[in-house]
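Take a record:
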Amino acid sequence: MNLSTPHPLQPYWDLTLSAVRADALRIALEWKLFDLLQRPASAQEVALQLELDPANTGFWLEALWSMDLLARDERTSALYRNTPVASDYLRTEAADYCGDAWTFRLRGMRRFGSQLGEQVRAGQPASQPADMAAIIDNWTGAARLQIAQEQRAVTVDVALRLMTLVPEFVAARRLLDLGGGPGLVAIALVRNNPLLSGEVFDFAQTVAVAADNIRRARLEQRLGVRGGNLASDPIGGGYDVIWCSSVLHFVADVPATLAKIYTALRPGGVLISAHAEIPDDPLHAQRVMPYYLSMQMLGRQVTPAGSLSDALQQAGFVDIDTYPEVAFAVAPVSVQVARRSAS
């Protein structure tokens, strides 16, 4: 008899518990707790510094310890300090700080969850002109802060590791970061390959953010920006490599967009497409569905597993390598490395 076997309802009880863990982290970020605990401190010291109740502060710190965000001092369990993940990503002075990005995602998911019943009841919104000014404003603001944090801490490393799997990257001369937001992926790729130059394409308002980052990186001679709307404006041509991450979800006509990308590549050029797809089995799908459910209910393009590879083939791409379940910010994506024929 195994008395520790979880009840079948345990995964669903865990859903209720996750809300408490999220709020424990939320207030830690709001109160800048991880700035205080770069050095060991007691619950009493934390409570005094933040003007909190000492007893409940101790329980809260224990909860964060159970989440592997705090460690107890080896000599006495009465002292707490940051674990590496808290020090590297949740301390405001950390180079890869992601606290704003994490809070941004939490608020977005909770806002969507509070509206989920009405979304299911009402269906997808009727076709009407999008408020593009608001969309661009929101995306530009996120590119300046939250998306920049995620690119710096997560996406850049993934992109660099993926390029080790793309033989053509070593000799590539011309890059397009399509829908690049803050442009940090393009900056990292150009730094990694001294032969490379290129452009970041995004809305005109958004590429101003990328241009600022390029200037700070002192790469103006090798990287430029191109503002426009992917659906209607030119994206340039003659590219050896195009990086396209989480862009196709938002286009109205995926085949037309893939044809545009194909034409922008020189013969022998490579597209690296990083987009979520819905896996075929529940175990893997549960990691993707919660984040992309809101997009699906707004009519965005979130395809079943394998559909993007099929669409790339139909667009003329060849020698497609697929990497499912690539770890990205929030939820995994499927990456396709697709080539335009050299002939």
About this structure: The chain has a mean pLDDT of 95. The longest strand covers residues 265-275. The domain at 132-339 is CATH 3.40.50.150 (Rossmann fold). The radius of gyration is 23 Å.
